[in-house]
Amino acid sequence: MGTRQGRSSRSGQPGRWRWWAAQVAVPLLVAACGTPGSDPGAARDATPEPTQASTPASPPDPSGQAYAPGTMPDLVGLGSAEAGRLLGALELGSEWSTVAVRCEARPGTVVRQAPAAGSVLTDHTVVRLRTATLDLEAFRGPCEAEELGPVTGADAVLARKLYRFAADPSVGAPFVAGEVWTGIEDGLASTTVGAAERTDLAAWQLDAEYAERGGPFSALDVLASSGGYYELHRGIVGTCPGGNAKAPAGLAGLRAISLTVPEDAIDSCLQWWGVTVFLDHDQIRGVALRLGSP
Predict the structure, then answer these.
(1) Rounded CA Rg of the chain
(2) What count of other Cβ atoms lies within 10 Å of the Cβ of residue 3?
(3) What is the value of pTM for the model shown?
């Protein structure tokens, strides 16, 4: 179980602070000339009534649920990056860890929090959050998940079939009849997988040092760990942060689609991943893995 600690410093969403400023600064206008028909001198001589400063409101909860100023918002169900931005806005310390789930929660989202939503916050409050993850040795899926787009239609159907194959190879996927290429980016490491060995997950693994990590690496494992929650794009989405969007030499002329980690689940390139699928007449001829690095 991984743990990350520290004070969150991620910035909030731009629209949030315009809303907040409107809540905490309520201008009080006193007309120097009074109202129509009134005595201007009386307006000048009148002693203004004392006013009470408004209580600053907390930044809005991205989950859409209102909460009282100075209390803990409900973070359960938010992506880790989104929850982190809100904690940064509240200037709260945080501790993060993971908890294994199956299909009951989206990987990368907050499933538990302490203190609970509505609890009174202090300057010394440290928020402890647990985010969902899939333990692939115990459970791979597949899970039924909502489509996150932006690409839909036939490409989304094909991508979903590949995800389901990654979770359970026995269900099959629309591969070409011959060998399928799989590798890292444009070929930093690669292998081919024949039709007879496609259901063997070990056949898809690559032993390499990559993205400041040690192998083995597998595009199928990365897809399975998403729980079926990914964004789908046309073309090759460049690796974060370098932006490498090259295709392997033997697949450069093929149409490509890319499945990537949802944007609200990450706050750095180290958490980014992408799987590029190369299509030959709408059949899968190649699968490339991309992992982000610091």
Answers:
(1) 26
(2) 10
(3) 0.74
